[in-house]
Specification:
This protein is α+β, with helices and mostly antiparallel strands. It has helices at about 5-15, 30-40, 50-55, 95-100, 105-125, and strands at about 20-25, 45-50, 65-70, 75-90, 135-145. It has 5 helices and 5 strands.
Length: about 150
């Protein structure tokens, strides 16, 4: 199913009109992370704030909708963002790391994996990772699945 098809089903079911959405896949392991969302384990994500600045892209907003895609760009589910906040990388909480649902759900695991991932993303944009780099933390809930 495409993101457009899922969105139409969701809009029809919820009787919504003139609502926008984004469609995207999680970085690193789109299929595995999408499965964690479907299993109710992953209820949070984080992204590098400098990339929003470089691309002049607005931050996600609470209440916004996203279609989560797999590695083949097929729609997996629809989420609604419930909370957005920005903190330095080295101040991400153990609670947020747990909500991300990855590995053993510890802050040390989260920091190790995300430092590697963010370092790659940031270097591709011509910048270098720093421990105090700002991170956009999002929390969400699944609102629709096929």
């Amino acid at each position: 199913m495409t993101d457009q098809e899922m969105w139409k089903l969701f809009m029809s079911k919820e009787h919504l009109q003139d609502v926008k959405y984004e469609a995207w896949a999680f970085g690193g392991d789109p299929d595995g992370l999408a499965q964690l969302v479907l299993d109710g384990i992953k209820t949070g994500t984080a992204s590098a704030y400098p990339l929003y600045e470089l691309e002049n892209e607005p931050l996600p907003e609470s209440g916004s909708y996203s279609v989560i895609l797999d590695s083949k760009d097929e729609a997996v589910c629809m989420i609604q963002t419930t909370k957005v906040y920005v903190v330095p990388f080295n101040q991400v909480s153990k609670e947020h790391a747990y909500k991300e649902g990855e590995g053993d759900r510890s802050l040390s695991y989260w920091a190790r994996v995300h430092e590697d991932f963010f370092s790659t993303c940031i270097s591709e944009a011509g910048k270098s990772f720093e421990k105090n780099m700002l991170v956009v933390c999002e929390e969400f809930k699944v609102v629709f699945r096929e």
